[in-house]
Each structure stands twice: as C-alpha cells, then as structure tokens.
Amino acid sequence: MRIVLIGPPGAGKGTQSALMAKKLQVPHLSTGEILRTVCAEKSEVGLQAAQYMERGQLVPDGMIQEILFKELCSPACEAGYILDGFPRTVPQAEEFDAWLERRGSSLSLVLEFRVTEEILLERLADRGRVDDGREIIRKRMQQYDDLTHPLLEYYKDRGILHTVHGGVGSAEDVFAKIEQIIENVS
Ligand code: ADP
Known about the structure:
- The protein has helices spanning 13-24, 31-40, 44-54, 61-72, 90-102, 117-127, 134-157, 171-185; strands at residues 2-6, 28-30, 81-84, 109-114, 161-165.
- It is of the alpha/beta class.
- Strands 2-3-1-4-5 form a five-stranded parallel sheet, sandwiched between helices.
- Adenosine-5'-diphosphate is lined by residues 9, 30-33, 35, 52-53, 56-59, 64, 85-86, 88, 92.
C-alpha cells in the first residue's frame, strides 16, 4: 500500500506511522527526517536545504522531489510506503500523481490527522524541540493552513481521503480506527 499522511505538526502522525509501518511491513518515510539527514551530510544540496529549513520555510519542490523520488524507487519501497510530510502542497500532489502515473502506480489511501489547535499547542510545547520556538510553531501552523489544507480538498475530490481524529482517545484507540480504514480499502 502507498499511503500519504496529512496533518499539522503534533497531530500524532509520528506515533501512528510507526505502528502502521510495523503492521503493513512497509517503510515509513518522513521528509523532515530525510531532509535533516541530507543537511547533516553537508553536501551541496544539504547546505542549500538547511537555509530554508532554518527559516521554517519549505524547501523548493524540485529539491524535495529529487531527493524523495529517488528513495521511492529503492527496493525497500517496492511493496509500498507510508509518506509523512510530502506532498505538502497541491502542486507537489499534482507532480506526485503524474510521477506515479508514469510508473503505472497510484496512491492507495490518504489519511488526514485532524486535531484541535489547543491540543496541538499543548503537545508541541511539551516536546520542546530546539527548532520548535513559538514563532516557528506559529509559522508552521500558518503554512499548514495556507498550503496543506487545500491538499485535503484535492484528495477528497479523488475519493481517497480518510480522516482520523488524532486528539481523541489513546494512541491505541486512534490506531484501531486506522486499522479499520486500511481494511476497508485493501
Ligand atoms: P518534522 O515534523 O519531522 O520536523 P517537517 O515535515 O515539519 O518535519 O519538515 C521539517 C522541514 O523540512 C520543513 O519545515 C521544511 O523546511 C522541510 N520539508 C519537509 N517536507 C517538505 C516538503 N514536502 N516540501 C518542502 N519542504 C519540506
């Protein structure tokens, strides 16, 4: 299965994607993590990407797509994958669909993690990560609303969008809901 996760930072995607990856036996790819690894390598593309990430901006589409699509072609991703962080915008989703189509492939499922802003702020404050200053959090949320929300409409129109409420119940409760959705589409 090829699954895309969509949700604001702190919505529980990390926890749930680990559980999903284990159940489905496919890799979980987080573009944030992939980019941080590339940055740490201090290659030319890594240094460029770091300049955007430090400012809380998205890296250019061409850059993330080049890095990610290469990864998606690896044998590890043959049986599917769980993507977290890409696509982030409608143009990225369009590019991704075209790329999949060229390979005779398509997405199985898009999972939206919905959670109230109150819970999000609480969770992000608890995490206290260095790059999670208040201003950065605000920026990332604004970015999510501006760019990512239209993505939901995009996938809804294609009939593959499913929503889970990430702030309701325990991690196990949320996962049980996700398992149901997966069973219904497979
Ligand atoms: P995490 O939640 O693990 O910190 P994010 O998904 O927020 O990861 O990504 C961290 C940073 O990486 C973003 O602020 C952005 O600069 C860059 N990034 C991640 N995914 C994308 C993407 N699809 N398009 C552009 N930039 C991205």
